[in-house]
């Protein structure tokens, strides 16, 4: 088996869609009235409405999304300028890469990760 995608359920599709279009610096690959997704290397990142989901994440550290970038400092500065709230600026990890953490509008955690050069 291999992972093929992830879904973030929400009651406010447009709120998360606008945010992740900013994060990915692109429009969604496909958008419907109750869902949208981005495709990267055959991996689908979905955002969709769900009738049993409401409000912000109550346990934002339960699942953390990891997004890889080749230049974490450039992305950090771009996102800070756009108003993204970072909980942790880029820092070098023991394994040699860099990690920065921010939250989305529903309090889900996202890591930017730059692999060691």
Task: List the topology elements.
Blueprint: E1 5-10, H1 13-24, E2 30-31, E3 35-40, E4 43-49, E5 64-68, H2 72-81, E6 86-92, E7 98-103, E8 109-114
Key phrases:
117 residues; alpha/beta; 4-stranded mixed β-sheet; 2 helices; 8 strands; 19% helix; globular
Quick rundown:
The chain is of the alpha/beta class and 117 residues long. 19% of the residues lie in helices and 38% in strands.
Commentary on this structure:
With 117 residues, the chain is an alpha/beta fold. Helices cover 19% and strands 38% of the residues. The strands form two sheets. It has a four-stranded mixed beta sheet with strand order 1-4-3-2. A four-stranded mixed beta sheet has the order 5-8-7-6, covered by helices on one side. The longest helix is centred in the N-terminal third of the chain and has 12 residues, at 13-24. The chain is globular. The chain starts with a strand and ends with a strand. The mean pLDDT is 95.
């Amino acid at each position: 088996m291999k992972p093929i995608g992830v879904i973030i359920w929400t009651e406010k599709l447009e709120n998360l869609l606008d945010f992740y279009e900013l994060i990915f610096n692109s429009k969604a690959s496909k958008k419907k009235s109750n869902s949208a997704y981005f495709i990267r290397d055959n991996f689908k990142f979905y955002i969709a409405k769900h009738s049993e989901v409401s409000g912000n994440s109550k346990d934002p550290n339960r699942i953390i999304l990891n997004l890889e970038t080749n230049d974490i400092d450039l992305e950090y500065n771009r996102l800070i300028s756009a108003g993204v709230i970072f909980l942790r600026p880029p820092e070098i990890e023991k394994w040699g890469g860099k990690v920065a953490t921010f939250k989305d509008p529903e309090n889900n955690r996202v890591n930017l990760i730059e692999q060691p050069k």
